[in-house]
Specification:
Blueprint (H helix, E strand, L loop, with lengths): L2 H7 L3 E3 L8 H9 L4 E8 H5 L3 H7 L8 E6 L3 H12 L5 E6 L4 H4 L11 H14 L4 E6 L9 H10 L4 E5 L13 H10 L4 E4 L5 H11 L3 E4 L8 H12 L8 H19 L1 H15 L6 H9 L4 H19 L10 H13 L1
Helix pairs in contact: 5-7, 8-9, 10-11, 12-13, 12-15
The chain binds flavin mononucleotide.
Flavin mononucleotide binds next to strand 2.
Amino acid sequence: MGLVLDDIQMGTLLLSPMAGITDSVFRRLCRRMGAGAVYTEFVSSDGVIRSNRRTYQLASFQPEEHPVGIQLFGGNPEILADAARRMWELGPDLIDINFGCPVRKVVKKSAGSAVLQDLGLYREIIASVVESVPGPVTVKIRAGWDESSLVYPEAAGIAAEEGVRAITLHPRTRAQGYSGKADWDRISHLVRESPIPVIGNGDLFEPEDVRRMMEETGCQAVMIARGAIGNPWIFSRTKTLLETGLNPPPPLPEEKLEAALLHCRLEVENKGERRGLQEVRKHLAYYTRGLWCGAKLRQALFQTVHYLEIEGIIREYLDALSKYAAGEPSHFEPGLDEKRRTKEELRGA
Ligand SMILES: Cc1cc2nc3c(=O)[nH]c(=O)nc-3n(C[C@H](O)[C@H](O)[C@H](O)COP(=O)(O)O)c2cc1C
């Protein structure tokens, strides 16, 4: 149980919670690639206490994901405490409370980043959740609601007083959304002020970014969100950089596409072919970003309904790519063989 927090002391690379992205399959892939711990996407405390099936699906995980945190959101301390108690029974390593979500649907219910506007409520929520579970509770916050209410130092103090074990800061305000740059000076500031470990978050897209954030801010761990989508190697590459000082090259297209195929297979195993492939589509868009003929590849992949079609297109693509790399004339024309066959059949008819 102490594992996660000990790891945080040593500079763990954590997979940040992302709604619609960090499902069990993606979390497993990131763990295999060296993520020190992973989090579920934010789970509605209202949904948990209503025993909503979909909410429970979001919170479920596989043994190989440990250490895994379940992240909860809500605006009512009693409901959150009850939900945390129920979630604890699923066996996570920690419960994280979301105080950062900027989405209107969430803040309208006084949850997510809206709670930062009412630090009394924030304290009450934390106190009731900490009391309701026997294990570690962490919190994830934004810097504040807007530039005129940068409450993050105070929020860390309250969290520490109420028994929270670590705090993650995404240093944008709610009003900022995702615009501009994440102001890492706020992370440095919090590292100096916070009585509990600070996990830095925001704009980590390359291993070098992680090293720079740790050096510049002194934070003990980082959470990577967007930089991990279609790019779970960020964890293994960053680990190598931190341990050896050498920055490994990004994965080859073959490696990217083999990982994409594995991702597809696991999603299909997990959710069935139709839903699994629907879910994996957004990931495929990222795995194929920046590849030679990437737009054509994506277009072909997005028209598929069966896993075997995806496999066929990727094999065809890799074949064309190796010819291209060898300087041979090469086109990637997905489905060309079938078109040719159909034409021949028509001609024969
Ligand atoms: C698609 C998406 C979904 C997100 N969902 C959550 C969530 O469920 N819980 C949470 O705390 N943060 C969520 N976030 C915020 C990220 O965890 C992270 O704090 C933010 O993206 C900044 O980190 P980054 O620059 O590494 O992306 C989400 C972000 C994205 C892009």
